[in-house]
Amino acid sequence: MPSGAFSKPSKGGPTLGPVGDGPLAGKVIVVDPGHNGAFNPAYHNARVSSAIGGTKCMESGTESDEKPAFGEHELNWQVSQFVVTRLLAEGATVILTRPDDEGVGPCNPERAEIANRAGADFFLSVHGDGERLGRNGIADPQGFHVQIEKRIVGGAALYDRSLAAAENMIRQLTAMTEEPLSNYVPRQPPGIWQRTGELAVLAGLETTPGVLVEVGNMKNPANLARLKDPATQDALAAAMVAAIEDTLLKPEFQTPTSKPTPTPTATPSGSASASPSASESPTATASTPGETP
Ligand SMILES: [Zn+2]
Fold it and tell me: Which residue from 55, 86, 183, 278 could staple onto 241, CB 3.0 to 4.6 Å apart?
């Protein structure tokens, strides 16, 4: 894997050729380790255009409460390494959206364009969440969830494919890891948060189904300890790769089983503005003190 810091924003990461001749031979998968290794406020906070209008280039991402903190970008990078290794072994070609975990990669909208230019078969954005303990009355928030974007350039058909992919992610993460489904993102279908005009990293996709997986909650010490364990990281990766295979290779898993909801689902508390982890998501409109150095 290439490494090395770069001072200017990169145009993206490398394209990696397959290592094996597996079921994903001929498929091109974009893996997006969320956020960037370095944080340049002027660059990251700049407004950029996107499929959902003007948006911040990129959030800093969350981090653990440890001293020194473990950054979300690093977790995303580590998990993505396992994903890439498995994809290449399955025969896929992989395009990374950033080349290392030290420099500054492309803004969120550009990451979708990387997939568009390649005519990629799948877009996977890997993130960790930063849900505070006790927020919304949940003492022990933990577990994975998946986000998708309703206002996707590819339209209703691509939204359906992305929803099916999200369902595959939830099913395989449940089956193949010891991790729990999120207990603080009670969405419909379970574990799937359907955003509307909020995720610039997915909204620009034209023909590539895309999901954003929040692999767990870094603010929860027990969840964090598991997330830092390479065995957990590889299990998460194996599940996500299995879900990609389901989405691309198995017709029975290529359409959503859950009825797409035409409008954003309300939270049980009835307050859309109190959306869990909205402050963490890559293009969330709300910002939280501490998220941005
Ligand atoms: Zn993130």
Answer: 86
